[in-house]
Design a protein that fits this description.
about 550 residues; eight-stranded mixed sheet; about 25% strand
Length: about 550
């Protein structure tokens, strides 16, 4: 929309007064110049106007899109801004990665609000491509375009008074910026101690008891509904009474699901659950802006003209999205242009052979003839630890398709090193293998397969592209290249979403995976800061003892 002055009319959803009434919004040079309340029965377009949606915690990298492409898809669903943690690319490329995200995001009309990554690397039990110490983090926090200290995943470090961890929190406090949390399962005195350190939010609650415990200690709770981790159903009823201290987030969202919807979907589901629409919009639109002190308008005179128009207050189909007065999405079409991006990366990995992936009986921990196995849980980041009798062939442990116990490997992509190998249950593959260089948090190569031949092919397919996701079934191979840090594509967002949909369908329909989002679940199987058992490039990791398996 090119004109400098214009109006939008419809039913204004006044979150502040908790009223809905016909109104005309007067916009001048990107700002709200006036809000004209109209007589009750005035004829206005059959549409509703309110502030834009905010994703209150997201790793843009997990969309496999650079920020400018993420924005092109998100605005269609009424999202005008995000609280973005560049933790993923920082673990690969360090400060250069953060700079890449900032530079690309600043070339499009969307309010990305990046934090200073607090945990690069996330732990000492894995190999990352970079490290940010407390001095690096403090320097980032001095920047105006860095809005907060990103999720403090090292909650053991907080609880045990680790000097480097505390310096980062102190630096955020000195800069007057919030500190985001990450404390799955933490309750009682430990939660109280973690919060008392100055940490203000958590998006990792997977039970209502945990969320309520943290709310009672003064923490803000984010309801997360991403492509893998889904906590909406467990937590949404808390919004009836705790809406002032709750927000919505996706955390990690793949491109296919972002193309379909975003925070608007959570609002529709919340209203369908009987949550008052004003409480829902307080959490979805207002609370993130106030908590992080964002420069995003909240539909008040003198605010930037950041607002959306929807069809109704039940399904929240977005008709138009405005950011700083510019119409950026109209009737399901994005009006933001693509921005060219030059990839950055760190990749030093040679192809593997079938022999490299073998697991001799003598090289794996046994307990009364059973082995520890990672049990993946659909829709959750946590895993369970189970003990299983291994399948043996020619002196080696191999995948057992009948028991759905498959081989999983993690390969250091930054330098030559031994391959870490283990077993995992619940992927449901009946044939073939999948691999990915999206492997939180250090983003080494992670792969699961039914046989070593296909497993090697899947791994080598992503090595050849220097990053990506792959699926293999004999001679059939699909690859989605991710040249930016092995995490993101530079292609059009809708093109990436289509390519991802195709490879995801292959894994489910041809290989037999029963998971809702197999690649997203795969990406979290090396995430050591989430209990209970994971696999890093250095070996099997016990999340309860917080140490490598002995």
């Amino acid at each position: 929309m090119e004109q400098n002055q214009y109006t939008i009319s419809g039913q204004l959803v006044d979150v502040w007064k908790q009223q809905i009434y016909p109104a005309t919004i007067h916009i001048n040079a990107g700002w709200i110049a006036a809000i004209e309340a109209l007589p009750k029965h005035t004829s206005v377009p059959d549409q509703y106007i309110f502030p834009g949606f905010i994703d209150s915690h997201v790793h843009v990298e997990s969309s496999m899109l650079v920020p400018s492409e993420f924005a092109r898809l998100a605005v269609v669903h009424g999202t005008v801004g995000t609280i973005s943690d560049p933790h993923e690319i920082a673990n690969v490329c360090g400060i250069e990665g953060v700079e890449f995200m900032l530079a690309n995001s600043q070339q499009t009309n969307f309010s990305f609000n990046f934090g200073a990554p607090s945990c690069v690397p996330a732990t000492t039990f894995e190999t990352a491509g970079a490290a940010l110490n407390s001095t690096d983090v403090a320097a980032l926090l001095q920047r105006e375009d860095i809005k907060y200290l990103s999720e403090m995943m090292n909650f053991p470090g907080v609880l045990h008074g680790d000097a480097e961890v505390l310096k980062k929190i102190v630096a955020a406090k000195a800069a007057g910026k919030p500190v985001d949390g990450h404390a799955p399962g933490l309750m009682g005195t430990q939660a109280q101690q973690y919060i008392a350190a100055g940490i203000s939010t958590d998006h990792e609650c997977f039970t209502v008891e945990e969320a309520l415990n943290k709310l009672n200690y003064g923490m803000k709770i984010l309801i997360r509904e991403g492509s893998a981790a889904k906590n909406f159903e467990a937590l949404i009823n808390l919004m009836h009474t705790h809406y002032d201290n709750m927000m919505f987030c996706s955390d990690d969202k793949h491109p296919d699901s972002l193309a379909i919807g975003h925070i608007n979907q959570l609002c529709a589901r919340a209203v369908a659950k009987g949550i008052d629409v004003f409480k829902v919009l307080k959490a979805a639109c207002v609370n993130p802006v106030q908590h992080y002190r964002l420069n995003i308008g909240l539909l008040r005179v003198g605010d930037p003209a950041d607002c959306i128009v929807v069809n109704n207050l039940t399904d929240f189909k977005v008709l138009q999205t405005y950011i700083k007065g510019q119409l950026v999405a109209d009737q399901g079409r994005t009006l933001l242009s693509s921005v060219p991006a030059t990839p950055i990366n760190q990749f030093n990995c040679i192809p593997v052979t079938e022999n490299d992936l073998a697991i001799p009986i003598t090289e794996y921990p046994l307990q009364q003839d059973t082995i520890p196995v990672i049990q993946a849980l659909d829709g959750q980041l946590i895993t369970e630890k189970i003990w299983v009798y291994p399948k043996i062939s020619h002196g080696c442990m191999v995948s057992d398709i009948e028991k759905d116990v498959l081989k999983i490997v993690v390969i250091n992509r930054y330098q030559p090193a031994p391959i870490a190998k283990a077993f995992i249950q619940n992927f449901g593959l009946q044939k073939g293998a999948i691999a990915s260089t999206v492997a939180h948090d250090s983003h080494n190569i992670v792969a699961v397969g039914t046989n070593d031949a296909d497993l090697a092919k899947a791994i080598n397919a992503v090595i050849q592209e220097r990053g990506g996701i792959s699926a293999v079934n004999g001679n059939n191979t699909k690859v989605l290249p991710l040249p930016v840090a092995g995490l993101m594509s530079t292609d059009d967002g809708y093109t990436v979403a289509t390519a991802y949909t195709a490879i995801d369908a292959m894994v489910k329909n041809e290989l037999g995976s029963t998971l809702a989002a197999p690649f997203m679940t795969l990406s979290f199987m090396a995430l050591l800061v989430i209990p209970h058992i994971k696999l890093s490039d250095k070996g099997l990791f016990d999340g309860d003892c917080f140490q490598l398996w002995r």
